[in-house]
Amino acid sequence: MPFSLQPAGSPWAWAGAYAQQPSLANGTLAFVSGGDVRLARSPYSSSFPVTSGLGNELHPSLSPSASLLAYSATYSGERDLYLLPLSATSPPAGAAPPLRLTYGLHVSAVLSWSSPTSLLLTARSSSPARPGTTCYELSLPAAPEAHAEVEPLPLARCVEATPESPASGCRYFVRHTQGSQTYGYVGGTAPFLSLSCAASPLAPSLTRDYPGTSRSPHLYPFAGRAADVVLYLSDQREPGDPKPGYTNVWALLLSADNTEDSRVRITSTLCNELSISDLSVDQTSGDIVVRRGPDLHLISREEVLRVIGDPSTSDPPSLFFNATHAVSVKTDPSSPTAEVVLTLSHLRSGAESVLYPPSPGSTASGGLGSPVPGGAVTNGLQVAWSDTDGRVVVLDVAAGTLRRVETWAREFGELRFDGRYLLATFESRANGFSQIGIADATADPIAFNVATSPVGNSEAPVLLRGPSSSVSTVAFLSDRDVVSEVSSPWGSRAPNPHFKRRSRLFFIDVQPRDSKDYVRELGDEEPPPEDEEPGEEVPIDFGPPPTPPSSYSAFAASAYAAEQVPALDFSSLLSQTTDLTHLSFLTSNESPPGTSTLSLLDLSSYEITPVVEVLTCDVSSDRSQLICLLPPAAPPAADEILVLENTAAGMSLAGAKLASLDFTLPVNPKLEFMQMFGDGWRMLRDYFYDPEMHGVDWPAMFEKYLPYLSRVSVREELDDLFEHMSAELSALHVFVYGGEYRSPFTDARELRGHSIGSLCVDSSWNEEAGGYEINNMFETNPHFPTVDDQFRTNPLSPSFLKRSGQVGAEAGDVIVAIDNVDARSMPDLGFGLKGKTGSSVKVELLRGSSGERDSVVTKVISFAACDDIKYAAWEWRTRQQAQVLAAEAGLEGGIGYVHMRSMSGASAEDQFVRGYFEDVDKIGFVVDVRDNRGGSIDSWLLDVFSKKAWMWWQSRNANITNGGLGHDQRGAFMGSVVVLTNEHTASDGEGFSRGMKTLGLAKLVGTRTWGGGIWLSSDNRLVDGGLGASAPEVGTYNDEWGWGLGIENMGVEPDVVVDNDVKEEFGGRDRQLEKAIEVLRDMVLEKGEIQPNRPPGVKKVVDNIQQYHAQREAGFDSRFGVGTHLSSYNALHDSNMRHFFENSTVQAHLYRSGQIDKAGRVIDLDRNASKLHIIEKEFQNAERAEESRQKEEGEMRRRVQLKRNQALQKARREEKLIRMKEDRKIRQEIVLATREAQGLLVPSPSMGGKKKGTKKKAIAAA
């Protein structure tokens, strides 16, 4: 019977510790808790820390004697391997500092000890096989200053491995795993156990017959049994059951020749319990330790052997400010599930009150749910927001009433209040363009009026007001006036129309204008007298609503462009200034990227005045101030906030207020983790694409995992809790990452000083030469030395160094010194490159070909840049291999090949264009999406491969046989296509593969893909910037496959299934590529010639016309102007057409056009030519009269405008004169008051003038 684990709360809880990653050896237990590695010795009743570094410490592994502890840490900013000697005392007294064993290897995990002096670990691959993670064996150095030998296992893909079995000489390993958190996963990346024996050239799988997860293999010391016993973790329910469940410990019992096996479940984790996450085996005692949740459980050797021996018994808050208060959308600290509430805070006293709701929860239960980021806005009296359920609601702060805005739109962008009006941008259902909606928030009911037409994107609405405070004009931005930068599709790479980001300023006049106001000048309103109070605001009249709602309205059709304002790269319109004279807006800057320029537009003259460069700006709810975030002056300078008065005069840096974001806040980690746990649970509830949560009782999941929260002390432990909880949804695209992790560095410059640089060579220590011998230079495509403006060339290669007149290195050369530091003093090559990324170094080489010593100066690159070079080297080698295989298969002229690393952004588009158009004329093409990380460009790629030519061209000297003009569909591929997939083809890479197969554009070859058929946005972030768990937000479906497109949690099954053996792949063989070429050859033979047969000869066009007419009109001479003249024809005199002309509509048209009279008689145009001439003259006279009238009207308008402007200028001059007189009077009064205060004689009007001696007497008195 399987062993039932001890319940939580056993002595192994260690006073509430959250334990992870256990390692058990010789009666000693190591595990990670609270960010440190801790030890517990038998009987494991207490534990103590053995590390306390500032870095992130993971993956402890005890040596067989438990005298050494290996673990990974980020003490230098990058994860490397460290070794710590352990004392026999508990806790150790005066322990030695850890010894660093790797430099820049980027360790992923420490697996186990393969011997007392060697370790197994996983790290970034440097083999010629496809880049990724693989397993290494590290031999400990004989002395601290000696070199640690690191050799990759001969496996192309490896994420977990056991030492070689002493009994069989074989090791057990796992090829791959996947990072999305889900239970019940059966997709292409489901891990399985494989076998690698020294005597066999292949590495067969052992548990691949089970579609779920099998991982974490450990050799088990089973005395007296000749064959191996392997313990591992699997989510298999029972032997032979293909449906996954919760993860348990299983035993794999192999036969002596490793050809047969039986499987026994060791532990029993029942329904609704926690899965087992980690496993460790004590090779000395045979005891095992497992982790379930935050608890570790010990299973004795006796219990394991009992089950194996008798298997038959087994059964961020967003703030919106007004003058004195802040309305916050924040997590309610009193809510156990971290529900969202609206609070009102007094900015000076700090007093806070909950506005809504009194009983928080989901939208279904009357709560707020989860407002979308940045979705809550206020005007000081009301608060509005949109949520993840597509609602827009308005809360009246004083009354506490909540009302939903009536709208037919579902996807809302920006919301903003402008006085009583709520402005919104939303996506048009008709064509996806963004439109603007305006709702009067004081009306009942509140409903959005569609204010713009769906002829382009409209955004950033601002309401412009006159002195009466009523809205006079709606201003907004629109890109409807598109201008393509590409004039035609003819040219290399078949350029598609490209529309540069540019918008124009548009206006819609709201209030009717005076009949004398013939010009649309927004700043020309007559100011009211100073003693006149503004009248009541006149509501906006939107006119009758369009039918249906998505059609155009008369209000939207009245929009016109501000022709005086040029088209710019607008970011946003902000606000009209409170003095009604200017409009503030943002435009994007090309450099530095991510910044914008705040500018003012004069609404009278349309002059634009730049104000300041910013990151972003927002407007206070009363529109009195602009709050802008300034870009940092230089890293790591703090960001600063700029507060500007929203007036034309106040919009300057001279009177601006400046505040710094460089501040600290006290944080209680326990309380913050409680909030983050509730936030993560709530946002999964409100963001997940299925409101029914795949049938999972989501509140029950909160209660299930909540008890473990009190034991969380670091972000890594909270991540583990999120991983377990989110996995209950059984959905892909659920990732836990980001956030605040412990790091030894807070300054980027300090981190750069400790980072390890790279020369991007595969090297090994050569004791005889006293240096690091270069084994591989990673040759890339010589035709593309730069890619996306970055050099993709090895810094020691001949092609890189020849530009400076130096001789590059070759395989076999030995690096003996770096910057005059002898290699013998370096424990690793990366040690000599510490802190030198981006710098030039002198590398001394011992040339392998001549034995001479030489030196070169080159630039050290980062490991990320080196990874890119290694990947490019694999791509170049695979492309060459594809051409060789095509030639061997008889595909004359070669084939096309392009590898797509991802489907993300411009870099993916660039990669496809570089590989596709070079080979667009080939008869076959291989699109390699193996290891594709996904993205969003599948629709564009499907468009490219869907293009088909239907017409071919030729000129005098060029046609399709000699590389001439070709066909009309520029860039269309006419041959056969094969798509290569594997288990790491993910997300959009799977969408592309499914699309190519469903549309009949290609055949798929390889293995089943990852299985991500629900798409995500990763916008449900927590307070520390990380993800509790990314929520799959967009479901996919079609008629053939239904929900998930047959991808979700299963993957795309290829037409031809073939897998690479990891041993062969390590040696350079690619069976999947070989099969792809074979399938492509068969497709080419079946399809035949892809170019059309040209006609046997070229005939003159006129001959073709003659032949055509000779066949159609026998008896007629169809040569135009030669021979018999064809009689004229008038259908009105044709009796056969009588039924057509009896139609009343046709007769009305004929009468209006003068072809028939009122009685229906045909008018002879030749006979009535003079009458027609008179009518035509009358029309011409009428047109001239109309033209003259329009000129007079225009002149009248000009004169009225001139007089109006003169009157306005006169009024302004008089007003200015009055103000000057008042200012003069005030100054005189100030002077007189000052003299009186000083005791000076002040002449009175009765004195009638100055008297002699008055000035002298006044001075004397003073």
UniProtKB/TrEMBL annotation:
<dbReference type="InterPro" id="IPR005151">
    <property type="entry name" value="Tail-specific_protease"/>
</dbReference>
<dbReference type="InterPro" id="IPR029045">
    <property type="entry name" value="ClpP/crotonase-like_dom_sf"/>
</dbReference>
<feature type="coiled-coil region">
    <location>
        <begin position="1175"/>
        <end position="1224"/>
    </location>
</feature>
<feature type="compositionally biased region" description="Basic residues">
    <location>
        <begin position="1249"/>
        <end position="1262"/>
    </location>
</feature>
<keyword id="KW-0963">Cytoplasm</keyword>
<feature type="domain" description="Tail specific protease">
    <location>
        <begin position="858"/>
        <end position="1059"/>
    </location>
</feature>
<protein>
    <recommendedName>
        <fullName>Tail specific protease domain-containing protein</fullName>
    </recommendedName>
</protein>
<dbReference type="Pfam" id="PF03572">
    <property type="entry name" value="Peptidase_S41"/>
</dbReference>
<dbReference type="InterPro" id="IPR036034">
    <property type="entry name" value="PDZ_sf"/>
</dbReference>
<keyword id="KW-0720">Serine protease</keyword>
<comment type="similarity">
    <text>Belongs to the peptidase S41B family.</text>
</comment>
<keyword id="KW-0645">Protease</keyword>
<keyword id="KW-0378">Hydrolase</keyword>
<dbReference type="InterPro" id="IPR028204">
    <property type="entry name" value="Tricorn_C1"/>
</dbReference>
<keyword id="KW-0175">Coiled coil</keyword>
<dbReference type="InterPro" id="IPR012393">
    <property type="entry name" value="Tricorn_protease"/>
</dbReference>
<feature type="compositionally biased region" description="Acidic residues">
    <location>
        <begin position="523"/>
        <end position="539"/>
    </location>
</feature>
<dbReference type="Pfam" id="PF14684">
    <property type="entry name" value="Tricorn_C1"/>
</dbReference>
<feature type="region of interest" description="Disordered">
    <location>
        <begin position="1241"/>
        <end position="1262"/>
    </location>
</feature>
<feature type="region of interest" description="Disordered">
    <location>
        <begin position="519"/>
        <end position="547"/>
    </location>
</feature>
